[in-house]
Amino acid sequence: MLHSIFWNTLRPGSSADRPEGELAAAIDEHLGSFEAFAAQLSTATKGVQGSGWGVLAWEPLSQRLLVEQVYDHNGNVGQGSTPILVFDAWEHAYYLQYKNVRPDYVDQLWKLVNWADVTCRFDAARAAGNPILIAP
Ligand SMILES: [Fe+2]
């Protein structure tokens, strides 16, 4: 699932270099600012011990965005959270071009994010509502 999101999110030549509209407002409200969010997701991705992922996720119970650090493919995933944007931190994702310099690879990933795709995932996650508090 994370790889499916990853490949669809990274598209060279994306039109915008940062999110707009309600996603941008949610990032500002929940994570401080785009710059603070980018620093947090970069740090989470660069700091994975061994293999894993950096993830921006929608958490439906608190109705907010949060950054997660996932070990391997599923360890430490927030229960019920929906991945919105994921960065692959497995060595196979960057070794051919960046050798063991994962931070350089992560810094370059930001240039490839397709924010329209991320926004679609954000909108769908929010539209799903809160599965725990559904009225009878
Ligand atoms: Fe991968």
From TrEMBL:
Keywords: Metal-binding, Oxidoreductase. Residues 19-119 form the Manganese/iron superoxide dismutase C-terminal domain. The keyword GTP-binding does not apply. SUPFAM superfamilies: Fe,Mn superoxide dismutase (SOD), C-terminal domain. One of its GO terms (molecular function) is superoxide dismutase activity. Its EC number is 1.15.1.1. The keyword Membrane does not apply. Pfam families: Sod_Fe_C. Belongs to the iron/manganese superoxide dismutase family. This is superoxide dismutase. The lineage of its organism: Bacteria, Bacillati, Actinomycetota, Actinomycetes, Micromonosporales.
